[in-house]
Amino acid sequence: MDLDRMLRKCQKEQWKVGDLDWTRKPRSMPEDDEVAIVQYFTDMAGIERLAGALFEVQRKNAEDPKLKDIFKTFVVDEVRHSHAAQMLADFYDVRKLRAYTMSPSLQQFYPYFVDAVQYLTPSIANAYITGGELILDIALLRSINDYVHDDMSEAAMELINRDESRHIAMDFYMTEHYASRDWLAKEKQMVGRRSVARRAKAYRSFLGVLYHARPFFQDVFFQPMSRVDPDGRRLKEAFKRMQLLGHKDEVARLNFTRFMTTMQNLFNTPVVGQVFEPILLRVLGVDKSLAVDLFTKDELKRAQAMSFDELAEDALAAKTIH
Predict the structure, then answer these.
(1) How many CA atoms lie within 13 A of 304 on its CB side?
(2) How far apart are CA 74 and CA 209, in angstroms?
(3) Contact at 8 Å (CB) between 163 and 310?
(4) Contact in structure between 293 and 243 (CB atoms under 8 Å)
(5) What whole-number distance in Å separates Cα of residue 229 and Cα of residue 236?
(6) For residues 297 and 181, what is the distance between their CA atoms, to the nearest angstrom?
(7) Neighbours of 271 (CB within 10 A)
(8) CA atoms of 48 and 164, how far apart (whole Å)
């Protein structure tokens, strides 16, 4: 990836929430749809604030000045997205049917995830960030937009999706970086120099993420997708892209990837998977339908021959799949 080009793109494609025409009127919808849509956008505002906090940690940890500047624009992006999502929630809250707050599971997951990005190894943090952004960009945002189906949502989502495409491209770039042998050697030295207190915080945050991830994903991603993407096609597409990335040789050798792959293999092992199903799904953070390989042999072979940049482009192309 050309970081100079990416930075120029990040700076050029900035926009303001006020650029959108908020004088439009939302389309008429049934009460249960209104409640669902307003809640989705309320949670989306929280997700985007979480993403902003994560990118801020990445900005602080980046050594390359260009990376710092790129992540700085990402923080601005996510703050803007959060603002836009909250305004969309207010825009569609026509009947004032209830008071809306972020889902409790999102509030519980939030501090552990921020701590995880700060205290865990960057490769683990980046894996969760990449996964979340793939779900958000390929599946959730597009499906909510299609479900709302009006000009206001379309205009906002077009701009948000443009930003998220840049984020995903960088996520794949950082995945390659953190999977390199040079970085792993450096990371091993960094971990070895950590204090006992810092290691304790890392373990605590990781256990917190594992424990709270499934309720968070269920409430904020899976449950909404059951309404706006009932056949689950887009959600499975997003998870397939994560799995293909995880099967790249460089990524597959990472400790965290091996751990999650082992959990999935145990889930799909007769008897073992049945006996320990609740525990394994809690660790994986997904439903049964997503705890299996979602790719074909030909798709895996094709992906393994791709560069990380090509994998990112292929993942972004999935946004056009209907």
Answers:
(1) 12
(2) 23
(3) no
(4) yes
(5) 10
(6) 27
(7) 7
(8) 11
Distance in angstroms (rounded) separating the CA atoms of residues 145 and 228: 9
The per-residue pLDDT string of the chain (322 residues; one tens digit each, 9 = 90 and over) reads: 899 999 999 999 999 999 999 999 999 999 999 999 999 999 999 999 988 888 888 888 888 999 999 999 999 999 999 999 999 999 999 999 999 999 999 999 988 888 887 787 777 878 888 988 898 888 888 899 999 989 999 999 999 999 999 999 999 999 999 899 888 888 788 777 888 888 888 888 888 888 888 898 889 888 888 899 888 889 899 999 999 999 999 999 888 899 999 999 999 999 998 899 999 998 888 888 899 999 999 999 999 999 999 999 999 888 776 5
Count of all residues that appear for the chain in the document: 322
Q: Could you tell me the pTM of the whole model?
A: 0.89
What is the rounded distance in angstroms from the CA atom of residue 268 to the CA atom of residue 272?
A: 8
Give a three-class secondary structure readout of the chain: CCHHHHHHHHHHCCCCHHHCCCCCCCCCCCHHHHHHHHHHHHHHHHHHHHHHHHHHHHHHHCCCHHHHHHHHHHHHHHHHHHHHHHHHHHHHCCCCCCCCCCCHHHHHHHHHHHHHHHHCCHHHHHHHHHHHHHHHHHHHHHHHHHHHCCHHHHHHHHHHHHHHHHHHHHHHHHHHHHHCHHHHHHHHHHHHCCCHHHHHHHHHHHHHHHHHHHHHHHHHHHHHHHHHCCCCHHHHHHHHHHHHHHCCHHHHCCHHHHHHHHHHHHHCCCCHHHHCHHHHHHHHCCCHHHCCCCCCHHHHHHHHCCCHHHHHHHHHHHHHCC
Instruction: Collect all residues with Cβ–Cβ distance below 8 Å to 304 and sequence separation of at least 6.
Output: 247, 248, 249
Cα 131 from Cα 224, distance rounded (Å): 17
Boundaries of every domain in the chain: 30-320
Tokens of 26: 């939302």
User: Residue for token digits 């790249």?
Assistant: 248
Assess contact for 20 and 176: CB atoms under 8 A: no
Burial of 229 (0-12, 13-18, 19+ CB in 10 A): buried
